[in-house]
Amino acid sequence: MLSIRLGGSDNDVLVAFDLGTEQCRELPHPEPNNPFKTLSVLGGCLSVTILHYKGYEDCCIYSAHVWVMKIYGIEDSWTKVCKVSHLPLSRSVYVKPLAYSRCRDKILLYFDDGDGLVWYDLKMKRTQNVKVSGAPRFYVTTFVVGSLVPLNNSVTD
Fold first, then answer.
1. SS3 of 117, please?
2. Buried/exposed code over 84-102 (b: 16+ C-beta within 10 A; e: otherwise)
3. How far is residue 64's CA from residue 28's CA, in Å, rounded to a whole number?
4. How many helices, marked H, and strands, marked E, lie in the chain?
5. Under DSSP, is residue 148 helix (H, G, I), strand (E, B) or coil?
6. Reduced to 3 states, what is the DSSP secondary structure of residue 77?
């Protein structure tokens, strides 16, 4: 279980809670001086999306950098998977990678504005809006991973 403790650009840390040992520890992150982060999982690896602003006072996103921790807990394993640049100034403040394409040449990104789902082509470095027939204009997207572990410690027969 992971979370980000926000407290200004000097205090942001990734905190991991190990369910087996019931211990917390801090994890390194790729751009410690940038406080605008979104945690997710991409391709089975911890992922952090860091937003860079053209004008902080205007809250206008200029680019989103998607990082993946290839080896969990190892600082040097952070790899920048993509940098989505020159985003329209109307983009909102939440960008989340959801999945790779089958060929792993694209990343499905979720923006919490009217566009919602967007494919980012890793070779061409371009985005393409995804239209989902019948979907509402605004929606939230997430992936859920099933588990055989009960949420409470009781097992019923």
1. strand
2. beebeeebeebbbbbebee
3. 19
4. 0, 11
5. coil
6. helix
What's the predicted TM-score (pTM) here? Answer: 0.74
Partnered with residue 64 across adjacent β-strands are 51, 84
- Asked if residue 142 belongs to a domain, the reply is no
What is the tens place of the pLDDT at every residue in 78-116? 999 999 876 655 545 678 899 999 999 999 988 776 567
Domain range spanning residue 77? 2-93
Query: What letters, b where the CB count within 10 A reaches 16 and e where it falls short, cover 15-26?
Result: ebeeeeeeeeee
> What digits encode the pLDDT tens for the residues 50-76?
887 766 555 566 788 999 999 988 889
- Torsional sign, CA 4, 5, 6, 11: negative
Task: Classify residue 64: in a domain, yes or no.
Answer: yes
Mean pLDDT confidence for 33-40? 76
Which of 37-46, 112-121, 130-139, 142-151 has the weakest average pLDDT?
142-151
Total domains in the chain come to 1
